[in-house]
Amino acid sequence: xxxxxxxxxxxxxxxxxxxxxxxxxxxxxxxxxxxxxxxxxxxxxxxxxxxxxxxxxxxxxxxxxxxxxxxxxxxxxxxxxxxxxxxxxxxxxxxxxxxxxxxxxxxxxxxxxxxxxxxxxxxxxxxxxxxxxxxxxxxxxxxxxxxxxxxxxxxxxxxxxxxxxxxxxxxxxxxxxxxxxxxxxxxxxxxxxxxxxxxxxxxxxxxxxxxxxxxxxxxxxxxxxxxxxxxxxxxxxxxxxxxxxxxxxxxxxxxxxxxxxxxxxxxxxxxxxxxxxxxxxxxxxxxxxxxxxxxxxxxxxxxxxxxxxxxxxxxxxxxxxxxxxxxxxxxxxxxxxxxxxxxxxxxxxxxxxxxxxxxxxxxxxxxxxxxxxxxxxxxxxxxxxxxxxxxxxxxxxxxxxxxxxxxxxxxxxxxxxxxxxxxxxxxxxxxxxxxxxxxxxxxxxxxxxxxxxxxxxxxxxxxxxxxxxxxxxxxxxxxxxxxxxxxxxxxxxxxxxxxxxxxxxxxxxxxxxxxxxx
Length: 518
What we know:
This protein is mainly beta. It contains two helices and 34 strands. The strands form four sheets. Strands 3, 4, 5, 6, 7, 8, 9, 10, 11, 12, 13, 14 and 15 form a 13-stranded mixed beta sheet that branches. An eight-stranded antiparallel beta barrel has the order 16-17-18-19-20-21-22-23.
């Protein structure tokens, strides 16, 4: 699998994180009761997960003959464990000066095997992709997300860059562009990449993992490469890129307690692969710290390394189902134990807090307006609704929709408020999609909504409250950090909408024109 080039060491370890152990706090009369684990009839020993091929980049140095890694944006150093000839490569690049060198490598974060280790985590190095003297390399300023593979040689001069199925080949004589005909690049085996030009000229690039040195520049590359074309045969060194990819796991999650909101659990999976997990409120809470990693689109491993500054070794493997993560057991010190009940987290749009007064109210200025659907179909909304049914594995059949746009969370982007023609005398089904840079993302579904819908001046978790009429009464829909209430019966009853912003959605009531989803 591939992680982004910033990966998981770009912030200090001491972040606000958490997990599931049996410790409780007694600093308040109201104690946090942590998720219970139930002993299994027999002890089940299990190794912690191996998630390989995570990309790291930063500086490598030696202290007391032990290698240490410092990532590009983190001043903290982490001990490196490896079975590669790391010291030999380092000495060739550094020439025994004892200075740090720039390094890119594939590996993962792991727990130390010895409980006596002073470190809560170590970096396991599996394969060196690139190493260079800091005096001859751009180091962390170097772009690694602009190519899937690149190679070069100096005798004679040549360069290759592969990106988006395009291969660019440069020599002293010319620059040429080819289309790659077999685009999969595997990191651990020899393979041949074939490419063709528009004039049918062909090129092949043989890539073989191995030690490749460019002594003039004091550089090590992780691949031996050979190019064959009509211009001749060229030998040199190459490296894999660290292409960024969308992380479906990143974001804020909430596990809501059935007993009390004081027992709710916040889980943050950050883009740099650190995580935050906190249970309870400010007076009495459980905090742990760790990392997350994944090599499949539907499984994420949460590893917890510290609790209240003390080292721990715990791991929870979550299964992803739509916008939810769930698990039934926890691996603590290599002993697998069943949870008392399934631990489920739902993805949120903002971080939840059970503390009174924690919610920040952002005062927005509104201009009174009456918003009705346009006469033409909104194709972006149509695609979002179609994807919604696809994700939920439901055939919309003859379902139709109409929609309006308005910025509900104050981020400057208009959300899509959709009504489906699933209507009765009690109202219609409503879907809300949040506007993100990459498009519309499902946020909420509310049943039996009567139009028009009034936007309130008040807000919860940065989302504006909504007012709707119901049986000659008014209801207020508050965002709970995850969504607006699914059932209209769960909304708060009010005498009248005194805090209306003057913005009215579907101001003429239920749409008279509907559009097909497909």
